[in-house]
């Protein structure tokens, strides 16, 4: 918990007559302690920078921003704040507390504004320079959820050994291209025949938002290599790194597949609200220029290749359902991350440094306060 003296001194700024900007002014007066919470300190610095970048590019509108600020004030006031005459300067606050406060506000703001799961991001990505509607789009997801679709495709093709396919079966087959190829073939056959039940959907985030990438540049090269040469593990790992798929698919045994889809409605640039605290999210920085400025930019976790391919373009859409999927490709299990806790902290630090670009968190908070409507 926050030390009572610190909590007490915040109340004048966070309760009653204080406006939204006072929340950020209060937070900027604290010295974040990262000696215990290094990981959370890195993540907080990165995501606060992403929040500012989203504001600068117009990907976070005023209503969404206010909805983010309100829960911060409410959460702190509900902790039993009392009035104090002055705001402390330089007082220590644990990074974990700040990170949890940030993530709670992000979650509450997203849920409040869009309880049905529609994207919070409001920027229209369908401009003349990118023309996303006329491009192939791809989303990377776990293949195991499509076991029923593969089984029906196998039944229609007469492949008895795949008719009773289960998630466990696909997991066992995911180690090499030859084993997983019949699964993908059966899924594609079922898709082409329209053998898709309404209850079958491509698993998306809890907010029913799908993160998708135009098939171009590095993403297109990796997909082409995996399809042509069957170098599944290496190329799926490279694709996982390029798209910044850190926790969900990076540390599990689930196979990944590339789902090619028709253009869904509601395309938008991602932001911290659609990311909801996901560790490797970053906003496309304003310094990146005007190329694809109405989209996001993934963080390439393979730092040795990041200079050549800093990341891939990404956008968000309403949840993509199986009827929107045209075909599936690749398929395979990415390599596991091979570093321990110390190496993971180094990775977090490098990620944070690239995302915030050397901007002190106090400066970022001050700029965010200036942008309060």
Describe this protein's structure.
With 373 residues, the chain is an alpha+beta fold. It has two domains: 4-113 and 342-370, no CATH class; 132-337, no CATH class. Helices cover 43% and strands 11% of the residues. It contains 13 helices and eight strands. The chain has helices at 4-14, 20-28, 38-56, 62-77, 95-113, 147-157, 167-173, 177-192, 217-229, 232-242, 272-275, 341-356, 361-370, and strands at 31-33, 92-94, 137-142, 209-214, 256-261, 296-297, 313-318, 325-332. The protein has a six-stranded antiparallel sheet with strand order 6-7-4-3-5-8. The protein has a two-stranded parallel ribbon with strand order 1-2. Helix 2 packs antiparallel against helix 13 and helix 9 (217-229) packs antiparallel against helix 10 (232-242).
Number of helices: 13
Whole-number count of domains:
2
Order of helices and strands: HHEHHEHEHHHEHHEHEEEHH
Structural class: alpha+beta
Q: pLDDT below 50 for ≥5 consecutive residues: which ranges?
A: 1-21, 79-88
Describe the strand arrangement of the main beta sheet, using strand numbers: 6-7-4-3-5-8
- Characterize the main sheet: 6 strands, antiparallel
Radius of gyration: 22 Å
Q: Kindly state the number of beta strands.
A: 8
């Amino acid at each position: 918990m926050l030390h009572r003296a610190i909590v007490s001194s915040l109340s004048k700024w966070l309760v009653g007559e204080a406006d939204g900007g006072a929340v950020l002014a209060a937070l900027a007066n604290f010295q974040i302690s990262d000696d215990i919470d290094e990981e959370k300190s890195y993540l907080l610095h990165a995501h606060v920078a992403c929040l500012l970048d989203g504001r600068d590019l117009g990907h976070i509108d005023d209503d969404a921003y206010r909805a983010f600020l309100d829960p911060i004030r409410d959460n702190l006031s509900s902790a039993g704040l009392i009035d104090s005459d002055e705001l402390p300067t330089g007082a220590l606050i644990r990074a974990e507390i700040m990170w949890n406060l940030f993530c709670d506000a992000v979650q509450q703001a997203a849920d409040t504004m869009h309880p049905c799961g529609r994207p919070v991001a409001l920027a229209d990505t369908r401009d003349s320079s990118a023309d996303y509607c006329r491009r192939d789009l791809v989303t990377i997801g776990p293949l195991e959820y499509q076991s029923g679709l593969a089984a029906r495709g196998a039944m229609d093709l007469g492949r008895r050994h795949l008719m009773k396919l289960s998630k466990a079966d696909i997991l066992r087959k995911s180690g090499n291209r030859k084993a997983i190829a019949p699964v993908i073939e059966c899924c594609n056959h079922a898709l082409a025949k329209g053998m898709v039940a309404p209850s079958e959907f491509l698993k998306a985030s809890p907010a029913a938002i799908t993160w998708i990438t135009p098939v171009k540049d590095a993403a297109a090269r990796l997909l082409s290599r995996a399809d042509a040469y069957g170098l599944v593990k290496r190329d799926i790992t490279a694709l996982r790194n390029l798209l910044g798929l850190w926790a969900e698919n990076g540390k599990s045994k689930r196979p990944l597949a590339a789902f090619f889809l028709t253009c869904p409605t509601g395309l938008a640039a991602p932001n911290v609200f659609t990311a909801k605290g996901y560790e490797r999210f970053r906003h496309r920085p304003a310094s990146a220029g005007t190329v694809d400025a109405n989209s996001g930019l993934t963080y390439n976790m393979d730092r040795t290749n990041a200079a050549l391919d800093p990341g891939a373009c990404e956008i968000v859409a309403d949840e993509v359902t199986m009827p929107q999927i045209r075909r599936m490709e690749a398929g395979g299990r990415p390599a596991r991350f091979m570093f321990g806790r110390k190496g993971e902290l180094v990775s977090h630090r490098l990620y944070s440094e690239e995302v915030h670009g050397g901007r002190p968190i106090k400066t970022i908070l001050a700029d965010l306060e200036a942008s309060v409507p």
